[in-house]
Amino acid sequence: MKKHTIFSVLGLLVSASLVLAACATPAATTQAPANTQPPAPTSAPANTPVPEATTAPEPVTLKIYLLDYTPDTIAWLKSDINPAFEKAHPGVTVEITEGSWTGWDTTFSGFFAAGDGPDIINLGSEMNTLYGESLANMDEYLGEAAWPDIKNFGPALENAKYNGHLAGLPIFTAPRYVFCRTDLAKGTLPPQNFADWITFAKDNTVIDPATNALTQQALQPVDAGSMADWQWWLLVFYSLGGELYKADGSPNFDSPEALATTQFLLDMRQATYGPAADAVGALPAGQGSPIDVNDATSTDNGAVCLAHSGWAAPSFDRPIWDKVSIEPFYGDPANFPNSKPVVLAFNDWLAVADYSKHKDLAAEWLKAAFTKEANNKWNETMGLIPARNDSQYGFVTEKPQLQREAELASKYGVGFAGIEESAKLSTIMQDALGKLITEELTPEEVVAKIQADYTDALK
Amino acid sequence: MIRNPYINVTLVAGATVVFIILVSFALAALSRFIAKLMGATRTKQANTFAGYLFAAPWIVGFLIFVVVPMAFSLYWSFTDYRVTANAAPNVIGFDNYTRLLFNDSGFRASIVNTLFLTVVGLPVQIAVALFLAVLLNQKTRGERIFRMAFYLPVILGFNTAVLLCWRLMLNTGTGIINQLIRALSAAFPPFGYLNRAVIFVVEIVNAFFLGISNGKFSLLIKVWEAGFPAANRVPLWVQSPLWSKMSVVFLMAWGCGAMMLIFLAGLNNIPKELHEAAEVDGANGWKRFWMVSFPLLTPYIFYNLVIGLINSLQIFEPIYVLYRDNQPLVSSTISMVYYLWQASFSHFEIGYGSAISWLIFVMILLVTAIQFKMQDRWVTYDLY
Amino acid sequence: MRTTSPVIVRIVLYAFLISATILMSFPLFWMISSSLKTLEEANSPGIVWVPEHPTSAAYTDILQNSNFLRTYFNTVFYVVLALAGTLLSVAAVAYAFSRVEWPGRNLVFFLMLSTMLIPAQALIVPQYIFFHKLGWIGTFNPIIIPGYFAGGAAMVFLLRQAMAQIPKELDESAFMDGANHIQIWWNIILPLCKAPLATVATFLFVATWNNLLGPIIYLQTVDLYTLPVFVANLYNINSAVQPWPTIMTAAVLTTVPLMVVFFFAQRFILESVVVSGLKG
Measured between CB atoms, does C263 come within 8 Å of chain B? Predict the structure, then answer.
């Protein structure tokens, strides 16, 4: 009996010390070219606080988390940008983590909950308000006084600001255009107001009675089946000259523009699919672009017009581009004099987290990766339009489609930014718009519901 | 200071094993000590020691990985913790809970949806599993392959590839499922009528449930007024809120492989003599199933029911995978756990999300407790 | 069962079996078919059921991709390590609940079952913070070590049911020979539980191999990634042209070990699952 008790007590002591020893090991680093960890401000009780800067500069790792990349982008960063940066800043190692859009929000919440993580994070357009409070104010590093180059960034820069302060830099601008098949479209292209769009929809949509499904869809917006995605709604709303917020900051969903937008969405849907009770099936979700042609069968993929960003359009070397026009969305000047053509621009960007201990270094890296040439090269690897106006040369002008897109973007681009509680608004709008197209709610009820719910959410 | 992640984790694993063993002995000794104080016999002390020794790994893990996080979660549920707000959580009392229970139509909708999936989806899943198990229990050639095919959905899980495949299969116009339905309706007119009748019933029921969750029955009225569906109608699967839940039910039935295995094992465990005796008494296959197999399967049905209920009340992945980029349909299928995920990781309101998770936990607890109480009424063990 | 059923019944039986098989395995068929297509074929508008000229280019490419190979190794490594520890601890805990009478047993058993009622999503944030404090973010530790504490109540439950079936007389005679519980567990009970242990191992293997959420959150660098994360990352929403053949190839290669393991373990699973005596 006694032996057991002693054994147990000893056991507790040994295990406690083992655990502490294991805890005190800083997080294991990668197998790749040796990366050092900063003396951990994290980790367990047994650590003594690190003494302040001693003699030589302490090794520092700058951590960057990227979601938008192609293998070419990473290769270029690792071969060109990072080595030059590390040479210019001895003792600093740059570590790039390649994440994916799957589970990004769970991963990010971990960073912010733990108050530690990558210094630079790749965010999407509307996330400046979502994460705004946790992002650093980079004005002193990237503002005009510190970095005159910042003037060269186009409207995409708005996406990288929170409360008027810069939190990072935008990489590219990916606007949403209206791509139309000039050979398939009946009627004049592009439709210039809402009434024309409705007629266009009726004339260019074909339903197969045998399958009670669409075989041709006049306009395929972001969500082809419902035609009621909130981003599509915002595009139309902005084209009417609508403002999301009133002067006092309260939501503006009780405006005539909001009602007209909602009515338009319903009309388009019914012009395409008929009344909800008809239960017409959608186009098949193929694996290529909806406005392209199937080489094997020489049949069209079904969409006459596509209101989406470049990703959904065919790749630029396809022959079909001869027959595709690229236009903005023209709004409804007939009824709303403030209408203007818009392309809704999504600008993914790199933000600096507030918990970062190396904001100055992060700023330096950003400056290095966002020079005129670098921004051009970055986007070349991805086939997108650079956020910097002066970077829109080379591959941008070589491809006629990109050049046209860049022109339209700089003339008519409207950012997808500055939306308060964007995640909640998305949920509220999707919920209400879903009920619009099933005719559960009328357009008046829909905007009233959104207005009420959103006002609530902003409290 | 270990650089190599493989060696690192192996060492940590080894350290963990040592840790567990030592803590287990410590816990066991402690418990035996307490037993001794309470005047237990020697055998009882030895048993106490052994029991806690072997159960300690789980107990310790439970404390570290469940109790402590749950405690945090409970604390946060009384706060307004916005994880991206760069501010500490501030206590707001029961606000989250009152809002959830009385003011949140979204949460109520998620409860209704989850109940639908449970009340409709679970019986379907169990029935399909039982049906497949009975099929497999017959002597057939290549039964191993069939068995594997039926378990395949569980093995595949819900990855990108499977998701795309389901989108293709469930497409209203050209998806293979609807094409099959059309082909069968064309070949056998009675099947066509059955199809339309089923569509009508499904849409009415779904519209009814949507009405409950939204508080307005305008959709139900519309569906009723539209009357009996036309001849060329097929299910709308992932296109309409009236069918979005049925697609999830379809996926649940598709993934019933684990339940099927349980049933198969149960069928295998029925002694042949019972079947032979029943046959001698003149019972045919159908009667044999209901009189002999079914009663002896009740423990397995119960097991599948309990586990299935727990799983369906927590259903998340099929919905997330089918509808995460089809936002307008989400509100018609959002389950309780999806609602929790949305609050925590989409809106980043960890406090609210924590309150939701505690409510879900309590609900499932109640339901399971009721199930166990009721098992005496209908579950037969050891009939022979 | 009988083999003398009439022909028509056999035909109907096979018809059902085959159509069910088609439905169940269609996604796998689609994955394999897509993986054998060329990039243009896979991305062509419209649906191509079977590739015209099947090509194994995607397979040769991916098998030469060092990232993929390392990811494969990572997955095998992590699953083996996790499985070994989890299996042992599950076997130990199941023993406690089935073959030893100890005060508080029922309460602890009930507690264990109730952990199945907690949605995993609820525990993510606190656990992340905990692992962060240990410095385990960016390592394999958070996805392996928790299993060592007999994570997975359903598996303990399953094994416990199986162990409960073994006659108590074996224990008693061993006690009389002077053995203690540890020896009984190791030398008598475990060898008798080969089939249930194989079952639990198979289920754990499938679940661990396919686990996506844990690895995505905790393994933060490419060289640690496991297969599910790798496949998820191949799908880049910014690309107009998705590399479907590559994605599908990776998915197929991910699934192959699972199918092999399950194919051989089927018989054990059926022999071992006995769930009578559920009064817990």
Answer: yes
Among C107, C111, C225, C270, pick the best mutation site for testing chain B contact (most B Cβ within 10 A): C270
H or E element that contains B20: helix B5-37
- What's the burial of C157, exposed, middle or buried (CB within 10 Å: 0-12/13-18/19+)? buried
Q: Quick check: B2 and A109 CB within 8 A?
A: no
Total Cβ atoms within 10 A of residue A226: 26
Looking at the fold, whether A405 and A440 belong to one and the same domain comes out as no
More confident residue, A164 or B87: A164
What is the predicted pLDDT for the residue at B2? 54
Percent of chain A with pLDDT over 70: 86
> Does position A431 have pLDDT exceeding 60, yes or no?
yes
Are B354 and C273 an interchain contact pair (Cβ–Cβ within 8 Å)? no
Top-tier CATH class for C66-272: mainly alpha
C-alpha gyration radius of chain A: 26
pLDDT, tens digit (0-9, with 9 covering 90-100), for B48-72: 888 899 999 999 999 999 999 999 9
User: Burial of A46 by CB count in 10 Å (0-12 exposed, 13-18 middle, 19+ buried)?
Assistant: exposed
* Closest C-alpha to A173, from A426, A420, A408, A418: A408
Q: How many domains does chain A have?
A: 2
Among the listed residues A37, A93, A63, A60, the one whose alpha carbon sits nearest the alpha carbon of residue A350: A63
Per-residue pLDDT, A10: 41
pLDDT, residue C239, reads 58
Q: Which of B157-166, B256-265, C83-92 has the lowest mean pLDDT?
A: B157-166
DSSP assigned state of A57: P
What is the C-alpha separation between C246 and C44, in angstroms, rounded? 15
Shared-domain flag, residues A183 and A298: yes
User: Does the structure show a pLDDT above 80 at B377?
Assistant: no
* Radius of gyration, alpha carbons of chain C: 23
Tokens of C69: 């190979």
Cis peptide, bond prior to residue A284, ω within 30 of zero = no
pLDDT at C48 over 80: no
Containing structural domain, residue A90:
60-171+347-415
Residue owning tokens 């690190």: A50
- Can you tell me the distance from the alpha carbon of B211 to that of C202, in angstroms, rounded to the nearest whole number? 44
The ipTM value here is 0.84
Determine the residue among C17, C140, C185, C244 to mutate to test chain B binding: the one whose Cβ has the most chain B Cβ atoms within 10 Å: C17
Q: Where are the domains of chain C?
A: 66-272
Assign B373 a pLDDT band (cuts: 50, 70, 90).
confident
What pLDDT, on a 0 to 100 scale, did the predictor assign at position A1?
A: 37
Is A306 domain-assigned? Answer: yes
Question: Residue A43: pLDDT above 80?
Answer: no
Cα angle, residue B281 at apex, residues B278 and B287 outer, rounded to 5°: 55
Same domain, A90 and A161: yes
Q: Is the pLDDT of residue C22 over 50?
A: yes
**Shortest Cα–Cα distance, C164 to chain A (Å):** 29
C229 Cβ under 8 Å from any chain A Cβ: yes
Tokens in use for B89?
Answer: 């959580």
A450 vs A456: CA distance, rounded Å: 10
Residues A361 and A332 in one domain: no
* Whole-number Å distance between alpha carbons of A455 and B188: 55
Any chain B CB within 8 A of the CB of A13?
no
Mean pLDDT of A19-28: 34
Q: Do B62 and C103 touch (CB under 8 A)?
A: no
Mean pLDDT of chain A: 81
Q: Residue A253 is part of a domain; what is its CATH number?
A: 3.40.190.10
How far apart are alpha carbons B129 and B114 in whole angstroms?
Answer: 21
Q: How far does the CA of residue A181 sit from the closest CA of chain C (Å)?
A: 15
* Arithmetic mean of pLDDT, C199-214: 88
Within 8 A of C78 by CB-CB distance, chain B residues are: 9
Q: Does C165 contact B at CB distance below 8 Å? A: no
